[in-house]
Amino acid sequence: MARENTSRYPWIPAFTGNPVVPYVPTREEIIDVVLKALDLREGDVLYDLGCGDGRIPVEAAKKYPIKRAVCVEIRDDLIEKARERVKEAGVEDKVDIIKGDFFKVPIKDATAIYMYLLTSVNEQLRPKLERELRIGTRVVTLDFQIPGWKPVRTIGGSGWQRTIYVYVIGESNKKRRPFF
Questions:
Q1: Reduced to 3 states, what is the DSSP secondary structure of residue 154?
Q2: What CATH number belongs to 28-168?
Q3: pLDDT tens, residue by residue, 44-63
């Protein structure tokens, strides 16, 4: 249950038990780079956790032979924007929209995941990803790494929306033994 925000900073949502992730859309000019990093193939099921306005799933559905894309978003206003985008693009048959908490939505059928969240949220999601995703599932994050995992590839450089981390379940999350 959300509490009223009585802090000195009313624009910051009150803590509700779930992490707060600000809505910052992936820039249009980087979408194709993100999609290439996801290495989407025929029959893939892409999940965008915290999809915002649905721009990544919609573009994936338009440009790649994926089975489907799934938008997971908790905010009603963004769900509505995602629905509008899906309809305008004519990809209703390939894009599902789930209103829900990405910590609670099952993701077992995903073969690719996109997340533009915060490092702290990625860290909290890591156990769910390890528990539910199959070996070989690709996980791509923008700007924020998944602590404890080693990317198989990093694309871009430093700066806002310039660094893409590519992880693969079974490779990136291997437990490494110390030398001693």
A1: strand
A2: 3.40.50.150
A3: 999 999 999 999 999 999 99
